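Hi all, long-time lurker, first post. I run a small reading group and we've been trying to get comfortable going from sequence to structure in the token notation. Rather than ask abstract questions, I figured I'd post a concrete chain and ask someone more experienced to write out its structure so we can walk through it together at our next meeting. Sequence below, copied exactly:
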Amino acid sequence: MIRGIWDRETVALALLASVFPIAATWLLAEGLEGVFRLVFFLLVAGIWHILWMLARAQPPSFAGAITALCLAILAPEDLGLTALLVSTSFGVVIADLAFGGWGRNVLNPATVALAFMGFGFPAAPWPDLAVQLGWAVAPALLLGVALGVTAAPLVLGAGVVLVSAHLWGIDFSETGTALAVVLALLVCDPVASASTRPGRWLNGALYGGLGLLFTLHWQDAAPVQMAVSAALLASLAAPLFDEIAISLWLLRRRKRHG
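-- Answer (accepted) --
Happy to help. Here is the structure in token form:
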């Protein structure tokens, strides 16, 4: 039997390729400081992957590099070495490796790590994302859809809600970049998002709706904090949306076939 090319690591490499426009734009904007941040998170995630491989014979994954990139871009600045180590380790171990590695996890490890930072260190200064990062999201999403690792219904679900709100006069000038970047990096994770077509539409729409709600009513939060919180809640609801979609399909099938 010949093994196909689509395995876990092929998908992880395709995801890395799809987020390259965002990574390149961010590194150009941040310079050496951004490189150092990325190397730090790569080292922390890589060490945990190696330790898990030695302890449980669980192979490391390129998905760890995606987690490191997400944290380097979105993690609060000047948080302190210990807080960053604890938060990153919590996300990588509890949300990823403890479930058997990327592909078997329920939540995105970067989302969990960032949520841990937000809840554990509420006064942490979240980064202000450069506007050009928002423009880099478009080619990243298009590349992800073309490679088959980004679900178009999920992107469209979020886009319909946010664009409709914008047309109704809602101002996303402060939160728009963060919402777009988090959509591409966290919400569109093919493992942590919904798997059924109706579920993906609902998953994206929920993220867009939460982003709209937080933009209107969460006055004291930073844009990245709002977007990460919306991503966490949308990811938690993803299995429910899939369950609803499957239940409706089974109901229609029973009515049709008796």
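A couple of things your group might point at:
The chain is about 70% helix and 0% strand.
Residues 8-120 form one domain.
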